[in-house]
Amino acid sequence: MKWERKDILGIKELSVEEIQLILDTAESFLEVSTREIKKVPTLRGKTIINFFVEASTRTRTSFEIAGKRLSADTINISASTSSLVKGETLADTAKNLEAMNPDAIVIRHSCAGTPHMLARLVKQSIINAGDGAHEHPSQALLDMMTIRSRKGSLSGLNVSIVGDIAHSRVARSNIYGLNKMGARVTVAGPATMIPRDIRELGVKVSFKMDEALLDADVVMMLRIQTEREKQSIFPSLREYSTFYGLNKENIKKAKEDVLVMHPGPVNRGVEISPEIADGSHSVIMEQVTNGVAVRMALLYLLTGAAA
Ligand code: CP
What we know:
Strand content: 5-15%
Bound molecules: phosphoric acid mono(formamide)ester
Order of helices and strands: HEHEHEHEHEHEEHEHEHH
Strand order of the largest sheet: 7-6-5-8-9
Largest sheet: 5 strands, parallel
Helix content: 25-40%
Distance between the termini: 11 Å
Structural class: alpha/beta
């Protein structure tokens, strides 16, 4: 298929064919990162602006590395060093970035819908690098790439997403993507962390960790998103860890070859024990490696190099 979409705003609007094309393209880029000279000329002359108005380690670094490995010029802007601190609006900032004629703008913002607003405002491609508790499409794509490469296919797999579903853009994007690709998704956590209408997205809900782990092919553990909570939604971290933490005892409920995933940052000893985070089932670092390849694929497809 030919890529025609201007922006990547969420997984919700992507077709199965588009997801497959992104994952296939990402796989073809994986080996570039293993070369001694980790660079190809594919995006020479293209300019990518990474505009992060919210903290990030993995997403921001991997978008920058992805651009550089494809020979694009990459520029990073953070909120604290931009004129947002002088009172300039985000819309005015975006129009000024547009006037410098980049080829794509990668945006992370704490407000849901910000990338969508920018996509309407500027002519360049916009990539959503996480908008509030709404979507984090490149994370879900790298998660699907990791599962597909380990399991061969996503279809028919039991995937359990455990933790703060209510505040997680990673959970939402993965639910959309995994459902489209034929996986069976269960979300689990305390009632205060599960949105009441989440079943409408086609997932099973469980409030018991053992039930969520039973026969799981993949377990995706999530951090409690304290930065998005208006009030504490669990009595104590110790209690949370006891009931919903993944450890060497309760992981036995899952399939023998279960994959343990986490988008990061990991809170060791809270949602996941250190021996599981670093253990033989964990593919957490593989997710990070695949993140560079997925972001290379997105930049390549969106900046027109694939046309
Ligand atoms: N997974 C993820 O979005 O990590 P960062 O917040 O470090 O980018």
